[in-house]
Design goal:
Order of helices and strands: HHHHHEHHHHHHEH
Membrane topology: Multi-pass membrane protein
Radius of gyration: 20 Å
Strand order of the largest sheet: 1-2
Number of strands: 2
Keywords: Membrane, Transmembrane, Transmembrane helix
CATH class: Mainly Alpha
Largest sheet: 2 strands, antiparallel
Main location: membrane
Helix content: over 70%
Shape: globular
CATH topology: A middle domain of Talin 1
Number of helices: 12
Domain Sodium/calcium exchanger membrane region: 38-188, 227-368
Protein name: Ca2+:H+ antiporter
């Protein structure tokens, strides 16, 4: 028992969140030199990885599709914390940070992660098999949330520019929460079987199977409580450390001559990297449905939870809040939705589908740097 406790106490998933939290306490309110920024950035990355690990431990206890939901919500909390922390100390350029980060998260998940997962599954088994009912419902929810929160502000007239009025922002926040909550209820209770994995061996019968982790011994209550505590520590550390390194990220983007929207892309890439790895691992194990649950669940949570959080934060944040997308971004979003529909309807995808999604993702990255 003592040996097990020592292994847990000195494991990287325990040490890194604690070190990252200590770094937050030490650097709070201070301007860091280059070496200090490097150390804090490394600890920030470690805290992100550790937080996702502990989310997976909790997810293993509650099972699929609850596992994908826990991971998506954990990642979104990190994203919201990063956005609010950067906006709180930013200038007028931070007005578009929420929009840029949320849109980047949608493009990364719906094209980058989906494309990589389909590519990984198709390379190993020729086709990627998944449940079109569950995945289609997820994509429909993402498309609706994105349109209500990111497209409509460009065309409303109550406020000048691509902004919501206070009443419109409140409505968008409440609608996002309601729609996301409805999807969670459908995913976890009413139609849970739509979101369970289908393997290539079970394709003909349309049989759903539990993930491989389902057959492994679940973590004990003590392990789950410890992971929950460390998850909270890691999330707090991410908020504080992000606040410390965000000026350096903004200066680097400015010195490179890149648009300020690239800051949002960097934040989204940072928080979604661990989830990307988890989704690709699931696809390689012939659990494409789990991968798509993670991808579309993250996109959905990114909008459904970020917009309400930003709406509340706008009470004390100064300056405008720009949510409306530009013409180029709306074209990419529309192409993503149309391509996603064509990919999902058959319930099976090939290398070509993966290549199409990855090409849209590459276009997004290129156009973000060279609009």
């Amino acid at each position: 028992m003592t040996g097990s406790f020592r292994r847990t106490a000195f494991h990287w998933t325990t040490v890194l969140p604690v070190l990252a939290f200590l770094a937050f306490l030490v650097t709070f309110g201070r301007e860091l030199p280059g070496f200090g920024v490097t150390i804090v950035a490394l600890l920030l990355g470690g805290a992100v990885l550790a937080s996702v690990h502990h989310a997976e431990v909790i997810a293993h206890r509650v099972g699929e599709p609850f596992g994908s939901l826990v991971l998506a919500v954990a990642v979104t909390i990190i994203e919201v914390a990063l956005i609010v922390s950067v906006m709180a100390g930013g200038d007028e350029k931070s007005a578009t940070l929420a929009r840029d980060t949320v849109f980047a998260a949608v493009m990364i998940t719906c094209n980058g992660i989906v494309g990589l997962c389909l590519l990984s599954a198709a390379l190993r088994r020729r086709v990627a098999i998944f449940n079109p009912e569950g995945t289609g419902a997820a994509l429909a929810t993402v498309a609706t949330l994105a349109t209500l929160s990111l497209v409509l502000p460009t065309f409303t007239t109550s406020e000048p520019g691509p902004q919501f009025s206070t009443a419109q922002l409140t409505f968008a926040a409440l609608a996002s929460l309601a729609l996301y909550g409805l999807f969670v209820a459908v995913q976890t209770v009413r139609h849970r079987d739509y979101f369970l994995p289908i393997t290539t061996a079970d394709e003909g019968a349309g049989k759903v199977v539990e993930s491989e982790e389902h057959h492994a011994d679940p973590p004990s209550n003590k392990q789950v409580v410890l992971s929950l505590a460390l998850l909270l520590v890691a999330l707090i550390a991410v908020v504080g450390d992000a606040k410390a390194v965000s000026p350096t990220i903004e200066r680097a983007v400015q010195d490179a001559g890149l648009p300020h929207s690239v800051v949002g892309v960097v934040i989204a890439l940072l928080v979604l990297l661990p989830e990307t790895l988890a989704a690709v691992r699931a696809a390689r194990r012939d659990r494409t449905q789990t991968s798509l649950n993670l991808a579309y669940g993250s996109a959905m949570a990114s909008i459904g939870l970020t917009i309400p959080a930003i709406a509340i934060a706008s009470i004390w944040l100064t300056g405008p809040l720009v949510l409306g997308l530009g013409a180029t971004q709306m074209v990419l979003l529309g192409l993503t939705v149309v391509t996603g529909i064509i990919t999902i309807v058959p319930g099976r995808a090939t290398l070509l589908h993966a290549g199409v999604h990855l090409s849209i993702f590459a276009s997004f990255i290129f156009l973000a740097m060279s609009p």
